[in-house]
From TrEMBL:
Entry keyword Nucleotide-binding: no
Biological source species: Reyranella aquatilis
InterPro entries found in the cross-reference section: FA58C, FkbM_Methyltransferase, FkbM_mtfrase, Galactose-bd-like_sf, SAM-dependent_MTases_sf
Residue ranges annotated for the F5/8 type C domain, each copy included: 220-328
Keyword terms, alphabetized: Methyltransferase, Transferase
Entry protein name: FkbM family methyltransferase
Residues annotated as transmembrane: none
GO molecular function, one term: methyltransferase activity
NCBIfam families xref list: fkbM_fam (TIGR01444)
Alphabetical GO biological process terms: methylation
Record-annotated Methyltransferase FkbM domain positions: 13-181
Amino acid sequence: MNEFGFPRGGIIHVGANNALECKFYNAYGKVPVAFFEAMPDVFAKSKETLERFPLQRIFHACCADVDGKPVTFNISNSRGMASSMLPAGRLTELHPGIHYIDKVEMKTSRVETILRQHYTPEDFNLAVIDTQGADLLVLKGFGAFLDRLEGIYVEISEEPLYEGGARFDEIRQYLVDKGFVLTKMYYNAVFWGNAFFTRRAPIYLHETRSAVSVGKPVSMSSTHLTYKAENGNDGNPLQRHKLFSTKSQKDAWWKVDLEALTPIKKIYLFDYAPQAARSASMVVEVSEDGETFDIVYDRKVTPRLGAGPTVIHLAGRKARWVRARLTDREYLQMQQIAVVADDEAVARHGMGVAKTQAAV
């Protein structure tokens, strides 16, 4: 995700085994992580491990495309790592040392069914799927959570290793139909490996271009050279060397007026990469009246991570003005600040949101 510049978001990991990735995910950022594991004893051990990471949790489930289907989950002698809800098939032929030694009778669950009890699709943008041949069935159970993902890392094989397992071309076609493209792929000597798919049209770019803040009145504390305030809310975060910039000063700020009290879903911050260090003291504030501002993000508390935009989730908080401000003396330089309205809150409460230029 760092390599492809996606915003930091939650991770869904199906086929957790011992949840060994928990430390890496914790270092990745303060994001929710949902693990799924079918083996009862491994689940219990992983649950204990994850107690150290409050944003990470694990669900005991055999994931598939439907809820409630009886299945036999087969447990292997390879420390459980080749265990599957599918019969072994060619697995034992290609790997003679691996065989099933136990089994557990279970009922399948869709990922979406479990996650909706605790999260919303907005909480996640990356999935890792390692379910020993059942990967396509698992993907089909993601439902609306698949629609919000920016990236999917999935186990693949040219021909099924497990009886009834999906081939790589089946997984690829399913994800292509869902708006993804193959970005990276690895095969080993027996044509088994992993693939990384990314969304063809990234969600964060679509949301930035259609943001409620696009084209709205903006101002800032000063202007450095020709880097005017309007550069920061034109809906185009990718144009090179296009940015807004104040002069170097104490409490430098940039502010947008949404022209109406608006429930805000999220705010995207696109740093000007060559000078990203200058925003280290930035806070983002919101206001209903233009006089009293509340801090909703403090970069000294939550530093910028990776190359992608920073995302501030506000869950429908109402505001008319959004302001970025530096607490140290420095230039305030950003490529784009995009405010995304919470359309569901607007529909729920009947609140008016002023139209963006993109919607006119």
